[in-house]
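[stage:ingest] chain + small molecule (magnesium ion)
[stage:ingest] validated
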Amino acid sequence: MLKLEGVTKRYKGASVNAVDNLHLEVRPGEIFGFLGPNGAGKTTTIKMVVGLLAADRGKIVVNGRDLAADPLGAKRSIGFVPDNPNLYPRLTGLEYLNLIGDVYGVDGATRKRRLDYYLQMFELTSAVGDLIQSYSRGMQQKLALTGALLHQPPLFILDEPMVGLDPRSAHLFKRVMQEHVNQGNTVFFSTHILEVAENLCHRVGIINKGQLIACGTMDELRQASGQAGSNLEKLFLELTDAGGIDED
Ligand SMILES: Nc1ncnc2c1ncn2[C@@H]1O[C@H](COP(=O)(O)OP(=O)(O)O)[C@@H](O)[C@H]1O
Ligand SMILES: [Mg+2]
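[stage:predict] done
[stage:export] tokens:
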């Protein structure tokens, strides 16, 4: 569903690669967690996958389409919720959603059915006529999520989706991600919250300093590190060598 081959990015003026020769495959129907500490390169990777940032090297294939050769074809398969949704403050929620619906060519009846479903789930129905600038951060995130799912994207990508959400909203986000794969789609999301990954993901990849340092199911990762029974947090700290953490 998503394939990265040797993807590399260095920001202008930087002395090291933000993303360094990344190989990764996200399989159809799975929830894949992209884990790593702050500054590891998660957002940079996601921005390249969704076409917001050009890779220096490497190849990205989305749902069988090469992002460089067929950017529109690749992007049609993607729904994306960024870490800081930057929505149009002077549109109402409904105007924003209709704009997204038009861009992705979602017909009226389908649009209404999906909007009814998500807006009710997110308790946004009564706010949808208000200007986005009046929304709380959580409401904006839920609006962005609704917009990203409006065309039922085969590949749903979220960057740090749980940050800043109250427990109830976080629960709804998890439920929506699960429902989306249950309907035959794929989810790829980044997080530094280990519990979320451990509970939700079929497989995880751990990135550190731009490089993928581990990838697999939790069981596979535990076995590979010879730490059967160890929890994800310990494994994560060992692999990313957080520095200064001394166990003895
Ligand atoms: N726009 C930018 N310009 C220069 N350096 C950047 C920019 N965005 C991120 N970086 C750097 O690239 C590295 C990876 O950042 P990022 O992809 O945001 O990591 P993460 O999302 O895992 O926290 C960090 O060292 C960060 O400082
Ligand atoms: Mg980030």
